[in-house]
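Shipment paperwork, digital attachment
Item: protein structure file
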Amino acid sequence: MKNFDRRYLNKSINKIAGVDEAGRGPLAGPVVAAAVIFDDETVIDGINDSKKLTEKKREELFELIVNQSLSYGIGIIDQKEIDEINILQAALKAMKAAVNNLNIKPQLILIDGNKTFNSDIPCKAIVKGDGKSFSIAAASIIAKVTRDRLMINAAKNFPNYLWEKNKGYGTKQHIEAIKKYGLTPLHRKTFLSRIIS
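Attachment content:
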């Protein structure tokens, strides 16, 4: 994975930011993106696509990434804005915000997926990048852990929806809770028109 990133290094590119998001699919809560820059030497064992890791492993790696990266940035777009601009635009906006929150400017941005956002820094979309690029995989972990923590915290105010377990995704129990208790301010209304009609 580290070798994938190293292929992009040259005389004019020595800082690469990997960017990924978490939370495109849930029925509730924000979409969260992260951007991470490492130096050329840093390797953290176990870094992989966040979806392939246990929650415990993600938490462990989160701390290592935060401590060993040169810089990381987080971007959060809430459910209200997701409903206003659509989830794809919200995810791209969160990614751009994450890059803007880095305290080091990269010369290249590697983005998970097949879309890029407008930036004065060159961007490259990498399909399935979270399984190929070390920095994108690290960003996927930062984004996922950050979003999970937000949803676990939100669950304290809305205990009926089991967000501490489902993180806002459309599980059977979550959908049943919506039908029984209605929507909260954290629900994405555009995602729920079929369920609540």
